[in-house]
Amino acid sequence: MTPRILYEALLVLHLSGAAATLLFFLRARTGALTGVLLIRLPEILFSLTSVYFLFTYIYATNANMDYVQRFMSSHGNQLLAPDSAQERREAYLHFLPLLAFDALWYVAARVRRPSGEGWASAWALPLSIGSGILYALAFPSFLGTGGLPVLGWFCLVPLMVCLAGVPVGRGVFYGTLAGVLQTMISNYWLGTFNLLTLQFVSVVTALEYVPFMLLSLVIFRRGGRLGFLVFPAAWTVFDWLRSMGFLGYPWGMLGASQYPVIPIIQVASLTGVWGVTFLVILSNSVLAEYVRAALARVRVGPGPAIVLAASLVGCLAWAGVGARSGNPPGRSVRLALVQQNDDPRKDDYREVFDTLRRLTDSSLGQRPDLIVWSETAFVPNIRRWSREDPKEFPLAALVRDFLAYQKGIGTWLLTGNDDYSFVTRDGVQERLDYNGSVLFAPDGERIETYHKIHLVPFTESFPYRKQLPGIYALLQSFDAYLWEPGDRRVVFRHPKFSFSTPICFEDAFPDDVRRFATAGAEVILNISNDYWSLTEAEGMQHAANAVFRAVENGRPLARASASGLTCLVDPRGRIRARTPLYQENLLIVDIPLSSPKKTLYTRWGDWFPAALGASLGVLLIGGILRRRSR
User: Is 452 a catalytic residue?
Assistant: First the structure.
């Protein structure tokens, strides 16, 4: 299902390259142009072809996906592959010959015409690709749902080695390529969310990496003996910045790969996840420093190793202090976390409600203080349909049954549900729709509603409808359902405890969850729908991000997902209880509560990446002033 014009353009580029190669071998010409054609062009073509192949392969895997077939195949612009196996074969047929040609061309050009470059510079392409792949595999992936956290400590070494030996322009290319490949491999499951999402994320990643790599390399070359600290600081600041604003997407931060390494992640209570990211990338940078020195046969002093060792010791010491601090629990609350293993967005809302009711009924014998249903677990808008005649509207009848059932169970219930409000703009009344969570008291009273504030860009939110109407029309043609962002961080008040409900990927944003904690939430209670990905890797990546919100704020975190990962995380980041992924299940958890203490991260927020950014700015300005004074 490859767009013909793009594939034909790729073929033309390869044919042109083949002609240039043939001329070289026949005439043995030399010169700058020949060097570009034979040394650089195969790198560019291999990179473009690799990215294009990944897009095509991921698109092909959607063909047999339950979510796509049920919810997208009959709508708008969704052109689905008829069969995954067939489409994968076509992807191999189209792209593997081109990739093989590019690889042979790349190797032959370096063997036939040595460029005079160092080893790391000459073979920078496979080094950067290798880093991108290792980076992705450090996280939960198709190779293992637990991820391979140990890879995080050295995955960037090949890239950093080659970056030190190439011109800035080439360094930007290699760094951006590694970043895009890492993003595509880590986020391959986005292909099942929306057929545009992976493309948007990859393009945005490329646009973000270009200035990041450019500035990092410029500062690195001015860093002198402190150069090994530049990439850890710059990468940490980069991850912080890319989590902000409309395009904020804090997935794939290298520190998050360390979620199972409990002693290391305790530093997040001081620095946020940013401190873990800095520490892991510092390991990469120090190792790269010694590898470069070994290749160049020069000596590097013990300074970088001492800095890394001191940082690790300090991190472990902080973990020991944290283990001894904190108030002993004096009370507890029992939650029933319901995982219905179904996508609420299907049309058979009655069937989903029956599943939720059956699982909830099985929890009542254990007398939970609060029953928690996932994001949009109950789909029909309760506020709207409760006002309509159930004899006339089937959805109104379903809402009536829900309200009667909730009142009959005799305990508190929280559910995800759509909500809305009306505003008047320019004399015209307009309805605003929200993705929300609603708390009901045992007597059936609707106590409070939270509207999701941080929406998924492009698929849940696009605030530039008037400025960019073409993109807005494209999103609508692909059935993107756009919400309005909420404007208030709600703290729900239960007789036994207070809690807030970041919805879905809101629990991936450190400062967003921190603001719930500063507002008074004793427990972070995330409700999510990860069923749509049909991929255990996505559910575990989401949970890995969420683990850090517990450590950062010193508060327990519970998650109720439509399917994975429903779990309980204690304030030190340990997953104390969990359900299997993609199974109907019910998780009863008793959460010990104590008088919440504000961690230093909760008090100070993102001070650590801000301080690193200021330090990099000073280093850059100092380097510029030193050059001018010479």
Answer: yes
